[in-house]
């Protein structure tokens, strides 16, 4: 199964890069929707294959982990919108940055997930720390506004300025330019901020999936299939930015639920199918309320 996963994910992601991200262009809503649908179908096929090979329980754990990671990724995409706007990155170069960002995220999560699984096996009490982190993040996400984030204050960006000069005038599609000496471009600075932002996001999302399953295979594959679809998800959500206003509230409730599940895991067994139903229900309700309840400005008009 590890071999099937590695070959499938690597070959399809390489094909996606060649067909879409390999050329500088603006990804429209139609292309983004088709790419999102493609990656969701691939993830579902792999989930059913997991069920056939490893059993029903593992399949439900996989789908629950996938839905949690994908729903958390939706909120992360809104942060990426702010990062691209801050650095003024043209839309035709954004797919390239997101592609490299996803490759970095896949490698980082490989390390973090296996570390997390081994920590839980070695120190059972650490599960309570992970649960506490999730509940804290849920409250923080609920009360914090996106406008409070300042990409320019990223410590890695400040470190880059000390190591390599930044050419803010560069407007091409390269990460580096040479003008006597080597300069980093705004595209590379954007990539660094996105990578470090994803590392912070992983601190929330990985414990959330570990609350569903302690199997490294289930946690990593569900994470990766969600992450590799982020590039197309970003462009789809960017075009629907103001539609799902209650999505952040729903995601914070999901984090709160999985945090409580993790804290209670040694005392109460919550079936994976129940967790999947709760996560899908919260996600669907937050989207439905976003459509049904009109913004205050529209009501006044």
Report helical residue fraction.
over 70%
Strand content: under 5%
What is the overall number of helices?
A: 12
Overall strand count = 2
Describe the structure.
The chain has 301 residues and is an all-alpha fold. The chain has one domain (2-293). It has helices at residues 2-21, 29-54, 56-87, 94-122, 126-143, 155-163, 186-210, 216-227, 230-238, 247-264, 272-292, 296-300, and strands at residues 176-179, 181-184. It has a two-stranded antiparallel ribbon. A hairpin with a 1-residue loop joins strand 1 and strand 2 (181-184). The longest helix is centred in the first third of the chain and has 32 residues, at 56-87. The protein is globular and about 65 Å long. The model has no long low-confidence stretch (mean pLDDT 76).
């Amino acid at each position: 199964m590890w071999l099937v996963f590695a070959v499938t994910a690597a070959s399809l992601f390489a094909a996606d890069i060649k067909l879409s991200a390999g050329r500088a262009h603006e990804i429209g809503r139609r292309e983004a929707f088709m790419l999102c649908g493609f990656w969701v179908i691939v993830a579902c096929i792999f989930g059913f294959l997991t069920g056939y090979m490893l059993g029903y329980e593992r399949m439900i754990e996989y789908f629950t982990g996938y839905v949690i990671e994908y729903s958390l990724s939706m909120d992360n995409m809104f942060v990426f919108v702010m990062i691209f706007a801050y650095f003024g990155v043209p839309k035709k170069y954004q797919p390239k940055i997101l592609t490299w960002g996803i490759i970095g995220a896949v490698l980082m999560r490989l390390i973090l997930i296996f570390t997390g699984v081994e920590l839980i096996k070695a120190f059972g009490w650490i599960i309570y720390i992970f649960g506490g982190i999730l509940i804290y993040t849920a409250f923080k996400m609920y009360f914090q506004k996106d406008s409070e984030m300042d990409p320019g204050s990223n410590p890695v960006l400040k470190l880059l300025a000390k190591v390599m000069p930044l050419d803010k005038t560069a407007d091409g599609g390269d990460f580096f330019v040479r003008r006597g000496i080597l300069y980093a471009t705004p595209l590379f600075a954007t990539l660094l901020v996105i990578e470090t932002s994803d590392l912070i996001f992983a601190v929330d999302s990985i414990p959330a999936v570990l609350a569903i399953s302690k199997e490294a295979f289930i946690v990593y594959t569900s994470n990766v299939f969600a992450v590799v679809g982020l590039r197309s998800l970003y462009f789809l959500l960017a075009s629907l930015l103001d539609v799902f206003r209650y999505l952040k509230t729903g995601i914070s409730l999901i984090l709160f639920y999985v945090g409580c599940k993790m804290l209670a895991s040694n005392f109460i067994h919550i079936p994976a199918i129940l967790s999947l139903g709760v996560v899908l229900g919260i996600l669907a309700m937050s989207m439905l309320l976003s459509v049904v309840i009109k913004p205050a400005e529209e009501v006044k008009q």
